[in-house]
Amino acid sequence: MTQFGDFAPLCHTVPSYPWCNLFYRQLEDNNVTVLVNASANAAAAPVGINPECGILRVGFDHSIGNVANIIVCGFSIIFMSILILWTHRRKAAVGRLELLHFLALYALTLPLQLLTTGAFLEQGSTALTALSAVHAGLVAATFWALLGNAIISTQVLEDGTISALIPFNFFTLAFFVATTYIALDVGFTFTHVFGPSDPSQSLHSVPLFVLTSIWPGAAAIIYFLIMLYVVLGMLNEVRPVWYFVLAMVLFVLSQLDYFLLNKVICKGTSAKVDGSFVATILETAAVGVLYLAWRSITEESWDDDIYYPR
Q1: What residues form the membrane-spanning segments (predicted)?
Q2: Per-residue model confidence as pLDDT tens digits over 40-92
Q3: Domain boundaries, the chain
Q4: Are 154 and 222 in contact (CB under 8 A)?
Q5: CATH number among 1.20.1070.10, 3.30.470.20, 3.30.1370.10, 3.40.50.2300, domain 8-299
Q6: What is the DSSP code (8-state) at residue 36?
Q7: pTM score above 0.85
Q8: Distance between CA atoms of 50 and 30, rounded to whole angstroms?
Q9: Rounded to whole angstroms, how far apart are CA atoms 157 and 178?
Q10: What gap in Å lies between CA 137 and CA 185, rounded to an integer?
Q11: Distance between the two ends of the chain, CA-based, in angstroms?
């Protein structure tokens, strides 16, 4: 029976689910013989544990890896670099530093996503396991940074000041370190505090499940509610609300694609690509819309006409 904290259903039905990389190493290290079908050969195995559909590692059976998501991640990195540059140039905008932190963290997750789901590295390898753990830590930290931006927007602490940046950065680091440590322990089982799973085939870890699967959704919802309060209750504006609504819709669609359509696309293309690239497009679009939302509520604070002497 599946219990809360079990990754087995996700690793079996959701292609390119990066946290499954941690359990593959765990199963190998503990000599558990539950790896069958495509997962049985670590050198060629796709992301997942006995997945219903998965993209084989690059070089096996003419596989070129998760090429669609690799390309989308590349373009998303460029897009995020542009957003970071635009945000940096808005010197007088409220919440600029905090938004820069969020954008930078999301940008860092993209190359790690490319590596952990691109089918480049061998399943169970030290490199893939370690990168997947760092990826998990960055995802958890990114969603704290998102929520932190909402808290800062209430001006309970003045943005850009030491009193705001210290707790903001402290919790960012705390989420990153705690999640990365837990993920490393799940993958390498060096302390046996967070692993191995019992029973092994359940791929069980409540802390990892909460931090990688529950926390991001909860943080996004709380962020949305706080921003509705800020825009409607504090600023008495309506137009910016639609940016936040659109961003939330895009985020929800990205998750629906990832968990519901991902396997359909994978099977429909005979495991040449899966739906992860659509999810990445939607997530990156959601971040872009959040930038527009931030601009719409801070535009009067921008120093667009600063004169720079030559």
Answers
A1: 67-87, 99-121, 127-152, 164-184, 204-229, 241-261, 273-294
A2: 899 999 999 999 999 999 999 889 999 999 999 999 999 999 999 999 998 87
A3: 8-299
A4: no
A5: 1.20.1070.10
A6: -
A7: yes
A8: 17
A9: 25
A10: 13
A11: 70
